[in-house]
Design goal:
CATH architecture of the largest domain: 3-Layer(aba) Sandwich
Strand order of the largest sheet: 1-7-6-5-4-2-3
CATH superfamily of the largest domain: Type I PLP-dependent aspartate aminotransferase-like (Major domain)
Order of helices and strands: HHHHHEHHEHEHEHEEEHHEEHEEH
Helix content: 40-55%
Bound molecules: pyridoxal-5'-phosphate
Number of domains: 2
Length: 494
Amino acid sequence: MSKPRTSSIEMASEEFRTLGHQLIDDIADFIDTINQRPITPNESPSQLQHRLGNSPLPELGKPATELLSKATDLMFNHSLFNGHPKFLGYITSSAAPIGALADLLAASVNPNVGAHILSPIATEIEKQTIKWLCEFIGVSPDYGGILVSGGNMANFTAFLAARTAKAPKSIKEEGIQNAPNQLTVYCSKTTHTWIEKAVILFGLGTKSIRWIPTDASNKMDNTALETAIKTDLENKCIPLMVIGTAGDVSTGVVDNLSGISAICKTYDLWFHIDGAYGVPAAICPKHKHLFDGIKAADSIALDPHKWLYAPLEAGCTLIKNPQHLLDTYSSHPEYYNFSTSENEVAQNFYEYGLQNSRGFRALKVWLSLQQVGRSGYEKLISEDIELAELLFELVHKHPELEAVSQNLSITTFRYVPLNTSINNASLNELNQAILNALQAGGEVFLSNAIVKENYCLRACVVNFRTSEKDMHEIIEIVTRVGRKVHLKRSQIKD
Ligand SMILES: *Cc1c(COP(=O)(O)O)cnc(C)c1O
């Protein structure tokens, strides 16, 4: 009789229960008190390294209870909290608590959502999640898609599908170096940096990007877009795709999508929408019109870890005709036995994107869509926008602040000291210094945007914990810090 194996990595159910209960209690306390903590501890990398110590890879194991208690202490006391009500930086949302529980459940069962046979219910839940996301943003539920790690991956996944669909068919075998002519892609100057990574990654090179200027409202200038396409066609280039941005990362402007879609139709180009930040706002009746034209998109990138408040990571690619994903990503190696059913075709997600083994990201999105419901999301997103509008109004009324832009849930503004003549370059430097002081201070976390050469403070509300009170307090904090930084800088110069 052989003895049962004792594995040092296994955990007895009693121990798991005790540690799990303790961890959940600690997390509940953390969430309860998050608004009383500094947003960031503002510690330097070397201070943090010092805390971790520099011991080599541990030779022997340690008890899990000790390790988890140390890890919770590190996380709760040395992190930046994007779940704090005054965290309004970049486009990182507060995380829905149900998402944390979902990730624990997903990790515990650990389905590999690359193949149906390895993840039977998880695959079906991901498919349903994708269908609901289509309804959420108002496109046909016949779109297909896949969950990925974030907006960049969602855009990459669509980009390669567009290349497969619109470049000469030989490219898939011959590679881009044998393309008969230069392949080109079109997007406005406000497009997120993913586009540069995409053209490098997929072999087109950065010179393939046609940066289309923006009009006075910061949307892509569609007349300039059409001119650029015509010029390229005359020069024997091969235009592939146009990227419309639905909520640009700096100021939240949504391009004229129906205009872009008409141009794509005329020239038979792929129409991609980068809606990583903004497209969930299509659920609000008041803002839906901004997204007119979305139903014509060949592909859409969105980011549940932004305005759907999923914990990191969750992005999503939606494709009007999902066959394009299969054409791009599907292969059937002999070592996979994934097509066994006689009468039903099972969907294997490894054939729909770049990943092979895949975690169960869909669960947290699927659960929060049900916990909150369509109307709940409409309310949350509308309120985020209203809070950003309130901030804009408060800024506008304040003599030391200058309101610059307000779109979706992004407001940009500047601190302008009273009774001083200050040139724009100094004003830019002053606002940069103020931003640094604010970010280090831990009371409010804003980021920056450059709007028409002006360095602005930028608040982006994708935070269900932010309230009107926070907006009033932010005005007080920014003006207090603004005065202080300005005073210090003028003393240095004197
Ligand atoms: C955030 C964002 C991205 C990148 O998404 P990640 O989730 O950070 O990878 C791309 N495009 C836009 C418009 C975004 O707002």
